[in-house]
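ping. complex inputs:
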Amino acid sequence: MLAESLALTAALFIIGVIGVLIHRNAIIIFMCVELMLTAVNLTFVAFSRFYGAAGQVFVVFVMTVSAAEAAVGLAIIISIFRHRETVNLKDINLLRG
Amino acid sequence: MLLQSFVDSASQTHPLSGTVAEWVWLLPVLPLAGFVINGLLSLNSARLGPDDPNTPDHHPHSGGAAEPSVISRGEQAGDVGDDHHAVKRHRWAGVTSIVGPGVLIVSFLLALGIWQAMAGVHMEAPFIQRYFSWMPVGDLQIDAALQLDQLSMVMILVVTGVGALIHIFSVGYMQDDPGYPRYFAYLNLFVFFMLVLVLGANYPVLFVGWEGVGLCSYLLIGFWFNDKANADAGKKAFIVNRIGDFGFLVAMFMLFANIGVLDFIGVNAKAVELGTGSVLVTAICLFMFLGCTGKSAQIPLYIWLPDAMAGPTPVSALIHAATMVTAGVYLIARSAALFSLSPVASLTVAVVGAVTAIFAATIGLKQWDIKKVLAYSTISQLGYMFVGVGVGAYVSGMFHLVTHAFFKALLFLGSGSVIHAMHRAYHTTHRDEDAQDMRNMGGLRRYLPVTYVLMWIATLAISGVPPLAGFFSKDEILGSVFARAQGSTLASASWLGIPGSTLLYSIYVIGLITALLTAIYMTRMMLYTFHGPNRTGAEEERHLHEAPWVMTGPLVVLGILTVVGGWLNLPEVITDNAPIGPTGILDRWLEPVVGAATARVSAGASRVPATTEEMLMGIAVVIAVAGIVYAIARLKPARLVPKRDAIPEEGFEGVVANKYYVDEGLDRAIVTPTYAISRNFLWRVVDNGVIDGLLVNGSAALARGFGWIGSRLQTGNVGIYAWVLVVGVVALLGAFTLR
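pong. complex structure:
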């Protein structure tokens, strides 16, 4: 039962990573990051089923932090869009060396 | 005093302990205190400026005549009518006039007290005062220690005695100079270092004094540093001396490496371990002698001394005639135990001394600058001293050192008196002429009667006319050379394939020829300076005056010493025939220090018969008188013209007048190539290429290159960062998993 759960979360996580790597749109990357977080949450839940409730507590923390992160992240993306009228990461490279 | 608490208890058993000799540390400390006081006073003027801007521009050494500002004093303002020349003296000149000579006089009195204490006891071993450990490094144990023995006592009395007289003379000569306190600060510092030199109980302490007097010599030669020639002369003296000091240092290193001690007692005791006549002891002695040639102006390092005349004349008298330049002779007498082991090194010393003596004497024949004549004369007389210590007659070398200090100081101070008068005369009439050139002098005996008489005494003394000091000391050196040639370790040795005996006879003949030349050039100087018509100028003639008593007083004292100095060491051959005094005071006095070394050199010698000695003495007198008579007969001061109208000498005379073009030759052979190498290789290749190009700019380029590579990684593209991050994580995880 645990093996199947972990296989699912691993698959979800890798989908998230690939999404971050191949997409250029900041919104999509953002959503992929959320997908990775969710995959991790699912891992915690799966482990809590076998090793006690500590995993559930972590999930609550992760969800809180990711909500805060989502608020800040979206605010930044909106701010960038207002300035440059794009959210394509290829065009946003002001910190080039 | 604090210092005395450090005194080693081991010295308590010495006969001098508990006497005034315990205060020996005060001898150098007194001039050091004078240096501090005068130095602080001179700082005061540097801040406030020595001259009032309202007084007329008044540079003491305008026109290249590097002599002090000579102005009208109150009593002369009336008769010469140049009171518009009032120069503001240094504000602390009064204090300096008391402190500067005062410390020297007290030092001299203390030296006399110590001498009294020494004369009262019988001492075989030197009296050593250890103050603190200076360099305790493994086997190298060097103490800051002073050594009092018969040899250093002679030097102390000469340095403080003649030094005090010259300090007093300087009061009259220099008091109107804006740098008066600075002058006395340097002069006192010089005496301090000179006393450290002669009192040091080991070679390193001696070396401190050795370098210190070199520093003071540099400072005082360039005393009027506004004139570039004077500053250059100071630099020349300093640099040439460094070459010699290198040799001295190498000698010290070799001594330590081979016998492990550097204090005089230890070296004297262990010197024989180096092996009589071995290559090692010869090398040590020759390196040490290289140091002596620098400090004492012998071939090949004599070139700095004539230029050193750029300093004030009392400085020339004290440093470049009486004391510092004789340090080399002292060093060899001090190291007699080493030199007596090496006949080859001893003969080298004698040969170099003899060649220098005759070489410098010939140049002295053709100089016009009164101080240059005396400078070459000093080099020549130093050559005599080296002949003396070179043939193992250490006492005779020291004897000539003492008498030479008397009469050469007298000659230099006398020339100072002449220059003082000349400079004042030209200054009063605003004429820009050379106050030191003898062609501008002549007939000065009418104006400077005291100086005239005293300088003639010194001239007769240096020429070797009995019964003046120079006769006895010079005769003793020549007699020693003759005696050594007849039979000694030197006579049986060979030097570069020449038998020692032949060499010594040649040195004797060279010494006689030099004596003849000495008599001629000194008489020439006197004739051109004091006799014949005056060439100074009709207007200037009225302004020529004898120096004040503060200057003539020391001259008179030195004059007396020049007359009676010979009594220090009367030869037996004279006292046997005419009981005019005790025999060989100096011989007996120095016996504990150099007696063993002298005996080692003269081993196997037979006594020269009294008749032969009398004959040698007679030859010396005849030669001296012949030189004087020849000069008076041949040289006609009336035919001279002032410097301005003089034509340069031609042919061989011109070569001699130009000092055999040695300076020019050295310039071509050493200075110019050094400059060329410095410019083309050291500057353009090493400095610009290697240091600036490769090292400085190279390291900058390296840092810039790495920075460029690093900056390429910062693309600003978040996607690439994410890729790198993921690859890194995967790699890390993979590494941990596969481990």
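The radius of gyration of chain A is 16 Å.
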